[in-house]
Design brief:
With 160 residues, the protein is of the alpha/beta class. It is built from 8 helices and 5 strands. The protein has a 3-stranded parallel β-sheet. The radius of gyration is 16 Å and the shape is globular.
Length: 160
């Protein structure tokens, strides 16, 4: 299967390292963990992402935004009481429709929506800290979806 990420010569990348050096293209999806790092925990590892987010094509589905609200309201995060409402996001994602199933199945059914949407919008970037999503890196890359931690993506873009 040929990768949709092409090298400067137009041929498929020779290695994962070459893919990591390609320029930015496509929409970016941020999983719920990354949103919490940005606007609840104010994690310094993603501070530059908060600054650069308005310049990215950040996309989300209504279900992704609902998950953000639901997880916070459960009260299982340090410093977040049960019933907490999410802080106002300084920027809002471009809303996209729910997508058909991706060819990969996530072991966490709640995270399947991220894989489905990234696959439908290829080439796309999915930034996550969730092991269930990160486990799909290689097979997703072969179909035009880059799944990585936000730190990896920021470093690859030269933003750190």
């Amino acid at each position: 299967m040929q990768s949709r990420h092409l090298s400067k010569t137009g041929s498929p990348p020779a290695s994962w390292t070459e893919v990591q050096t390609l320029s930015w293209q496509g929409p970016v999806l941020l999983d719920t963990h990354v949103l919490f790092d940005l606007w609840v925990f104010r994690d310094p590892r993603v501070e530059v992402l908060a600054q650069r987010l308005p310049g990215l094509d950040w996309v989300a589905t209504p279900a992704m935004l609902e998950e953000w609200t639901h997880v916070l309201a459960r009260g299982r995060l340090p410093g977040c009481p049960v019933g907490a409402t999410p802080p106002e996001m300084p920027w809002r994602p471009r809303l996209v429709a729910e997508s058909p199933r991706a060819p990969w199945r996530c072991r966490d059914a709640d995270d399947q929506k991220f894989l489905d949407t990234a696959h439908a919008l290829r080439p796309a970037w999915l930034w996550s800290r969730d092991r269930a999503l990160l486990a799909h890196r290689r097979r997703a890359l072969a179909l035009g979806v880059t799944i990585e931690t936000p730190e990896s993506g920021l470093q690859r873009l030269g933003w750190t």
